[in-house]
Write a structure and sequence with these properties.
InterPro entries: HAMP_dom, HATPase_C_sf, HATPase_dom, His_kinase_dom, HisK_dim/P_dom, HisK_dim/P_sf, HssS/ArlS-like, Sig_transdc_His_kin-like_C. By secondary structure, the protein is an alpha+beta fold. Helix content is 55%, strand content 16%. The chain has eleven helices and twelve strands.
Length: 467
């Protein structure tokens, strides 16, 4: 529920505030404890100097023979605040109980001094440091103590200052986080609003690039590219529906017209036969168009459903040329072998021979037909990874403004009225080439001819990709 209510902008603002707060608290803590530690060390150094001075003073005396449990007190407020110094002999039984009760310092502190030669100690207000020294045949302890005014008074002021700074920092970090999150999300909100305006009725709209924002501009470019593809797909769908409707309605209209005319009056047997022949011919055209449409649809699916074998493209090409020459002796096809590789294995592709035969035959047949059976040049070549097939004719070409529709099923260019055809050869060929992981490119100039370049990955490169 909480996540649903909080927007990403709010989450970002809270996250930034948490980060800023953690950093501020961390540095405040470091400053405070560093100062406290430094003040302790510095004050102990002063006390140590004072202890050394006391020892020098005592050692400078001509006679020092303090009885056990007698404390020589020194009060010296001139050097350190509320300084108190103590000198006493180490009890022979190492029992500091009486001294401890008198000066209100734990006996463990005295034992540490004796054990280590030097020790320090502090209570809530006073700091102590003590050292042992020897005079004559006795061991003595000298202790210097004073009140650390800095810790007692000035650290309190430091605490209040740091707390005030933390509160102010949190306040300004909240303002900064809000401003930063709003600045970061403003372009995203702007893009979201623009995307909501785009629908199927206005697919021409595009997102505007954001100034000085490389990452968002990449998103904008990607989204605009997607819109381009969707718009093209919509246009293709519209063209396909229009073309298919037109192509299917034409023979149906002819069939219905012939049947209507035949039934309007009584006719002779010969007339009925002629009418039925026309109807049969139109029905066969309709059947061929429907089968072609189904073929295009089927080749648009995943190529793995087709049986794939090792196919040598040079042999397939010779077979296609021979077939086309048998179908129409006017087909004038020249096979250019100058680009054939030395190793014939490079001409092998992984594919379905029947479908490849159909695709290549459609491309070459179109070249022969639309060039009025002038010579069509077919070139076959290969690199280490790919097989290339180029079909070049000098025919009527395709108007430049219609090039974007050449893959639409049943589309026929405006200059093909004098040529028979259904407009399915090229889209069918492209689907077959795609099934074989290949690429089909068409370049054309009206009245100068068309060049179709087909590329297939060879059999061995496909095997390496699968591995």
């Amino acid at each position: 529920m909480f996540n649903k209510v909080m927007t990403n902008q709010t989450k970002t603002m809270v996250l930034l505030m948490m980060v800023f707060t953690a950093i501020i608290l961390l540095f405040s803590g470091l400053v405070y404890f560093s100062i406290v530690n430094f003040s302790h060390q510095r004050f102990y150094e002063l006390l140590k100097i004072r202890t050394a001075t006391i020892i020098q003073i005592e050692k400078g005396k001509e006679h020092l023979d303090l009885p056990e449990n007698h404390i020589l007190n020194r009060l010296n407020d001139e050097e350190l605040p509320m300084e108190r110094d103590y000198v006493f002999a180490v009890p022979s039984d190492s029992n500091f109980r009486k001294i401890s009760q008198e000066v209100h310092i734990p006996s463990s502190f005295f034992k540490n001094i004796v054990k280590q030669g030097e020790a320090n100690y502090n209570d809530k207000e006073f700091y102590y440091i003590g050292q042992t020294f020897r005079y004559g045949s006795k061991d003595y302890i000298a202790i210097a103590s004073a009140k650390n005014h800095y810790v007692v008074y000035y650290l309190g002021f430091l605490k209040r200052t740091l707390i005030t700074c933390i509160v102010l920092s949190l306040f300004f970090s909240m303002i900064f986080s809000f401003y930063l999150s709003k600045t970061l999300f403003r372009p995203i909100l702007k893009i979201t609003g623009k995307v909501k305006e785009i629908s199927s009725e206005n697919l021409h709209l595009r997102l505007e690039p954001q100034p000085d924002n490389k990452e968002l501009n990449e998103l904008v470019d990607t989204f605009n590219d997607m819109l381009n593809r969707i718009e093209t797909s919509f246009e293709t769908q519209n063209h396909l529906i229009g073309n298919v409707s037109h192509e299917l309605r034409t023979p149906l209209t002819s069939i219905m017209g012939e049947a209507d005319v035949a039934l309007s009056i009584t006719r002779t047997t010969g007339e009925y036969r002629e009418t039925l022949g026309i109807i049969l011919d139109e029905a066969e055209k309709l059947d061929r168009k429907i089968k072609a449409l189904l073929m295009i649809a089927q080749t648009g699916f995943d190529g793995k459903i087709q049986k794939m074998d090792k196919v040598r493209m040079d042999q397939l090409l010779w077979d296609v040329i021979e077939t086309l020459r048998k179908i129409d002796a006017r087909n004038n096809i020249f096979l250019d072998t100058s680009m054939l590789p030395d190793n014939p294995k490079k001409l092998k592709v992984q594919g379905n021979e029947q479908l490849l035969h159909l695709a290549v035959a459609n491309i070459i047949s179109n070249g022969c037909k639309y060039s009025d059976f002038q010579q069509v040049k077919v070139s076959l070549g290969a690199t280490d990874n790919d097989v290339y097939l180029i079909v070049k004719d000098n025919g009527i070409g395709i108007p430049q403004q219609e090039m974007n529709k050449i893959y639409d099923p049943f589309f026929r260019a405006s200059n093909t009225d004098n040529y028979e055809g259904y407009g399915i050869g090229l889209p069918l060929a492209r689907n077959i080439v795609r099934m074989h992981h290949g690429e089909l490119l068409v370049t054309s100039h009206e009245n100068y001819g068309t060049t179709v370049q087909i590329r297939f990955p060879n059999f061995y490169s496909m095997q390496n990709e699968e591995v």
